[in-house]
Design goal:
Length: 344
Amino acid sequence: MDSNTHIRLVDVSKTFDADTAKQVKAVRKVNLQIKRGEIYGIIGFSGAGKSTLVRLINLLERPSSGKVIIDGKDITAIPEKELLNRRKKIGMIFQHFNLFESRTVEGNIAFPLKGQKHNTKQRIDELLKLTGLEDKRHSYPSQLSGGQKQRVGIARALANEPDILLCDEATSALDPQTTAEVLELLKRLNKQLGITIVLITHQMSVVKEMCDRVAVMDSGNIIEEDTLYNIFSSSKQDITRRFIDTASNVRPAINLVKENPALLGVKEGDVVARIDFNENSTKEAIISRISRDYNIDVSIIFGNVETIGGLPLGTLLVAFKGEKDAVQKAIKSLQEENIQLEVL
């Protein structure tokens, strides 16, 4: 095992109602290695098993089988007292904040520090400053915005100076502007504290903004795992492509082409295709070269170029116009160059 591995799951499964006929296999033999200090995303649709998986990491749910290894130690095999101590180094934030309504911001942050040797006031002061809540110390949750409540949740999760932060749909209840602010805070904490963040979400836009590496879950299985850039540029699974399209304007453009092609200048006999460009192909004049080589016209219907993980990535919707045989040869030529092209 790599010495930089912080969290390792080995054949981890979770079955609910294991002794009845109504078994639910929420997680199925998952194997993951999460590096120290990285932001690791786990994405899936509702019911994919991702929230169960994150609760297995700190043993809020015990695996039906398999091992959860933190810092090289199998925490599924340690005594309960030692587990409680280890959990203090694993903070967790939730979708719906889970704050005590009868406690102030200060009281909520102080709760995990009960019985600890910390200088409680000093630690609370540090956390209020870290999360930008100095002026909300004596406010109650009912007096806070959603973003402020989540900041309290983050401060509380950091109270015992954890080195792992588990985020279970932490931004799903927030508006886009507040989501961006919370994500920016989490990125800053990751860099400033060196904390490992495991981010559970169904929002690909969150993954795109935050993560170093990504795992895609479906029906309790990890169906794909890679760096953020590789997931966006060369994903292998249809479900992953569906997620990726939700984080861009590509899908609405494709739907418009299918519903009203004439509006975009697409005529009968034109071949419409989607071309995805990665860091290598964005450097080439592919469209003009293909037009010259095969004496056809290539009309750009839609274009989107963005930066993912510091590298360029783009998508074009194009209409190939010209003699049918020449168009087919042009498309085959692009596919033989390992350029991702899908005829729509």
